Amino acid sequence: MIDFVKDVRLWFAPRLLRDEGETPDYRFSLANERTFLAWIRTALALVGGGFAVDQFLPDLRWGVRVGMSLALLAVGAACALRAVNHWVRCERAMRRGEDLPPSRFPVLLSLGVGLVAVAIMVVVLLGWTTGR
Prior knowledge:
75% of the residues lie in helices and 0% in strands. It contains 4 helices and no strands.
């Protein structure tokens, strides 16, 4: 828990990372940043998908539309938060000369997106509309 609090503090003050070990080869830091940006792009796509489901599928039953929209928005938000936390943890590990931290988040993200995709397929196949 203490590490998590310290990690969150580093989100807003990355200059404090300089106190952690030695400066790694800048190429590794830039690769870490590119990975962060890839996670952010994924988060933005999920948020955009959640917005699109809500705004552009008005004929879906309200509960189905809102449920799928909220699921995509929640997974997008989790992805964005995880991106910055993963960036800090990896940067710290590189500075300390430690192994990069393992993460279960890619599996959770894949399962979340997969479940929403299956739900959307079911809706498409069954045609759950408001009956207009």
